[in-house]
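ok so heres the complex, two chains, lmk if somethin looks off
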Amino acid sequence: MSKLSLIIKREYLAKVRNKSFVIMTFLSPFLMVGMIILIAYLTKLNDNEKRIIAVLNESDFFDNEFITSESTSFVKFRDISLEQAKDSAMSMGYYGLVYLPNESNLEKVSQRSFFYSKDAPSTNTLERLERIFKERLKQERLREFGISASEYAEMDSEYELNISTFDGEHNLKGINEIKAIIGGGFGYLIMMFIIIYGGFVMRSVIEEKTSRIIEVIISSVKPFQLMLGKIIGTSLAGITQFGIWILSGGILLVVSMAIFDMDPADLSRGSAGPAMGGAPNPIMASSDSDMLLYAQEIMDIPWVLLVFFFLVYFILGYLIYSSIYAAIGAAVDNETDTQQFIFPIILPLMLAIYVGFFSVFSNPHGPIAVGFSLFPLTSPIVMMMRLPGGIGEGGVPLWQLATSILILIFTFIAIVWLAAKIYRVGILMYGKKPSYKELLKWLKY
Amino acid sequence: MNHILVANKVSKRYGDHTALQNVSIEIPKNSIYGLLGPNGAGKTTLIRIINQITYPDQGAVFFEGEPLKSEHIAQIGYLPEERGLYKSMKVGEQALYLAQLKGLSKNDAKQRLKYWFDRLDIGDWWNKKIQELSKGMAQKIQFIVTVLHEPKLLIFDEPFSGFDPINAGIIKDEILKLSQNGTSIIFSTHRMESVEELCEYIALIHRSEKILDGKLYDIKQAFKKNIFKVGIDTSAPLVLLEQLEGSFTILDSDITKNQLDFSVQLPNGRSNELLHFLGTQGTIKNFTETIPSANEIFIRTVEKQGIVHE
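and the predicted structre for the whole thing:
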């Protein structure tokens, strides 16, 4: 067995046998799935809660407008005073009381109506009640203007501008966002992987320094081999962990769905609801034929290409960052000294994610998106967000992709070379609190 | 080819700091070679160059006549001063790993480890983790790992630090046995006293320069000043002392009752003359030539070079 594979094997085994690693690996899917189930369950519970609202109507209007629905039912009070109504609504444990005073016309009734409740009412309930009033007022006005309901319905026409690419391909609203979210998912995966396993590489280097085994080992192997073996071994352990997570998470999710009798569609509705925050969801608002088009578009995303470039960007990006992590680990004596060096690493990663979410989502081929997808420290993440749009026409221009990868490869070589130099000097350096100036000096050794 | 290792005018600088300046040493085969000097003199840098952990700026190192290259790593065993083991790894696994890194096959490594574990009486440690062992126990493992691949050249940097006297003795015997079996050994230390009993050759390194090297015996002969320590029982010590002072250079003297102790510097070949004369004066208790210790030699060399500024 070659020395490199020996090192990789040791690093891998040391990592996967580590107790906290094992616990994290097998506990996380349960935690994650548990969390999802809990959220879905709570959302369902929330939806199922039936609110009872009392209605005290002293006016001559609003006879049949308060219609009991799945989530809200109305109870009508008759011939009691407002105070009595309040008391009984409270003692019956009703959610609230709608009071409509006796006034001469609908306008005044509406204006002077009140909703009483124990606590501040939920916005859902309020919206529901307000809609009843609005609808009633609208009908009143229509009647005044002498327009029939059917005439009004014809008047109010929906309109959406048709969009298309220059060469006539049918375009869909929001498809850019959907594609960017898919790409963003890949980019996010790269960032998480770098932060988690880059940190592992760093701690593993620090451990070798503090246990003083480092000099024993590098009298047998080249420091670069050790660094490389460590990075590869740790990332293999990381891939194992991710694999277990995805596999067991998927199985758990399906199993628990079956147990709790939940429809996956429920789940997506439950989780999509709060995130979208009432803004019209492009998918929901569309007709069925558009739904099909969206499905078609998602199917049309060049998945094979996407996965291929994901691997390219993932491997290069991870190697760049983890060799920086290894150099940091070599430069310090203990983990507390790492903070000043970690921040500049996290910064471009965070920047990539934020720039991605704010700029690339809305305009995947704008100047900012292009710039950040060429800059080597952000390109693995930002380019992944742009790539679901395809390569070439309508997607990422080929030259940008090629330049981005080329720059990344050169950066990779340069960074690994620099990191290896710092690493080589750093691992034999004890009791020195390194500054950036000191690190620069090491490069000349 | 009589030398296992030759370093030729090796220089190494770290930034502004010169770690080694034109250092040349020749290490004869099958010898124990002491690399001496105070902390920070450059010993460790030289050793790291021999181990190809760092590389010289100038000069070259030859192993058995060939320029040092990475294949030679398997022929060298190195016990660094800053040493340790993976704390959470099991003893056996760890020893196997390190042995395999030195190029041993797994089966070979296993067999040899068994032999050494039996020999040093630590057979039942195989499945223990390093963190469960005491420091001295871990040092034994470290020693075994260093010698396991039967290298032609062994380098020990402060090998006895961290050992209790009993285990230090065991390790010293093992080192001597290895030497008898034909292994060449470099022994680096700043404790001169341990040098005397082990080393055949020495090199003194001071402030990045080699200031002295050669066979320890020859160096001592060269550095001795023909000083003899004499003790004699005589009826009139004071009179004898006066007589002696007339014809010899007496350095110091001490009289206790009838016993006269003194140091004398003799010109070459006059020891017999003195001995003869003393024989007629009383009972000679002792008559020994003072051979300078490595420590004395070191201090004197440094002083002679005028490079001690403190």
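quick notes: The CA atoms of residues 227 and 265 of chain B lie 4 Å apart. thats all i got rn
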